[in-house]
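A common beginner's mistake is to predict each chain separately and then try to dock the pieces by hand. The better habit, illustrated here, is to supply every component at once so that their relative placement is modeled jointly.
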Amino acid sequence: GAVVSQHPSRVICKSGTSVKIECRSLDFQATTMFWYRQFPKQSLMLMATSNEGSKATYEQGVEKDKFLINHASLTLSTLTVTSAHPEDSSFYICSARGPSASPGELFFGEGSRLTVL
Amino acid sequence: AQSVAQPEDQVNVAEGNPLTVKCTYSVSGNPYLFWYVQYPNRGLQFLLKYITGDNLVKGSYGFEAEFNKSQTSFHLKKPSALVSDSALYFCAGRESSNTGKLIFGQGTTLQVKP
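With all components supplied together, the output reads:
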């Protein structure tokens, strides 16, 4: 099946620094990727839709200047948390639309746990 | 508004007993419905999906789900639960706009006790 790789799996940073999380589709091309945020024991909150070669579409209430998304190639999308603060600590998960043979199906990365000190 | 609901925060089952995790949906048009499982500090793993065809869908690890249009439900089932099935389960539906965005339920924690 389609594989989505997310890196790093865990990152700890100091308040005020920026952190980049990568999401790669390993064996298929993903024109669209999605970034989610998950708080402990809660559901996934969609942050933005990342489209290859164009600007990301952010969900209401998500600060686009704080959560920078770049989808520069058909296999890579990055999420950069800028000027991170402790309240940005969370579990971030990306997903990619599967190949055309799997309509509607999303494949998820393993997630990245961000801890801001 | 489109939505997916999982009415139970937690389901407790004894090992070997059948399990059911409930899901109801409100999605316009023909729904695409999914079940995912999440283990601690991991991403979501796909279990099964309903797009069209037979109402009973069989998926990974012995799970199955039944699509019921009249009750707008898509309950996840397994005939005999394993302790290793203990995890967080998410039901999801796809928006009819075909953006690929999934609407997730709140999640249900399944606890299987030996």
